[in-house]
Amino acid sequence: MLSSIPTPKISVIAFCTNEVNDIKKLIDNVSFAHEIILINTNKRNNAILPLVEKCGATLVQQTITNKTQQQNLLINQVQNDWILLLDLKEYISTELKNEILLKISNPQANRIYYIKQTFHFFKKKINYGEFIYRKRVFLFRKKVEISLSNNRNKPSIIAFFRKSEILKNRIDSYTYKDFDEYNLRLSLKSKEEAILLHMKNIKPNMYHFLLKPFFNFMNQYFAKLGFLDGKEGYILAYINSFAILKRYLFLWLLRNKLE
């Protein structure tokens, strides 16, 4: 990095729980940021508030169930031009940190940077399947005035005229500590997607219930080599395909006013 070029300041927006060790690890991991805003997803208490304040971060209580909407509320409130978005238990390597600082120090920096994740499931690194291809908005300039959609992989404002780039280094994701937590998150996502489809007046049919989950499984497990990840690859392909079935089941319930 050229010493003659000052590094712009970064604001971090991240989700957290009341687990003290995870909070400290998260804050230490992004200590290069000039502002750290943590969104507390646990509504029971603010037991972590003293720790967060001691570490120089800001704690915000989540007020909206949808996490992307909660992020959108905070984007325009941050102090700095560059914004870094993190999910629960995502950690930045030294190589990724250096890449981030190098990119934003460039006067010709892109406005939006995407990231791919290294996904860990049942404490195993996943090397195949659809997860290695997924990317999402990770780092962007506030001036872009970007708004995230319910699908975190895409902005709701498609800024096709903006320069964007996928970062070379991946982010390490330990988001789900066990099967139940991952399955719960998928169920919540299925409900959110069903609501959006209902708003678009989409009517579910046998293709959605039978063929779409089947083709999704075949794509993840065979076409994208998920079987090479062993039993973890099979479990991921199965429950993600089942989540698609649940999406259209929730949609059917909504259309029939049973939900």
- SS summary, helix count: 7
Please state the average pLDDT score.
86
User: How many discrete structural domains?
Assistant: 2
Find the CATH topology of the largest domain: Spore Coat Polysaccharide Biosynthesis Protein SpsA, Chain A
Quickly give the CATH architecture of the largest domain. Alpha-Beta Complex
The top level CATH class name of the largest domain: Alpha Beta
Helix content: 25-40%
Organism: Flavobacterium cupriresistens
Protein name: Glycosyltransferase family 2 protein
List the helices and strands and how they pair.
Elements: E1 10-16, H1 20-29, E2 35-40, H2 49-54, E3 58-61, H3 67-75, E4 82-86, E5 90-91, H4 94-105, E6 112-121, E7 124-125, E8 135-141, E9 164-166, E10 171-173, H5 179-199, H6 206-223, H7 231-255
Parallel strand pairs: 1-2, 1-4, 2-3, 6-9, 6-10
Antiparallel strand pairs: 4-8, 5-10, 6-7, 6-8
Helix pairs in contact: 5-7, 6-7
Protein name: Glycosyltransferase family 2 protein
Organism: Flavobacterium cupriresistens
Write a structural description.
This is Glycosyltransferase family 2 protein. InterPro entries: Nucleotide-diphossugar_trans. The protein has 259 residues and is α/β, with parallel strands linked by helices. It has 2 domains: 10-173, Spore Coat Polysaccharide Biosynthesis Protein SpsA, Chain A; 179-255, no CATH class. Helix content is 39%, strand content 19%. The protein has 7 helices and 10 strands. Strands 1, 2, 3, 4, 5, 6, 7, 8, 9 and 10 form a 10-stranded mixed beta sheet that branches. A hairpin with a 2-residue loop joins strand 6 and strand 7 (124-125). The relative contact order is 0.12.
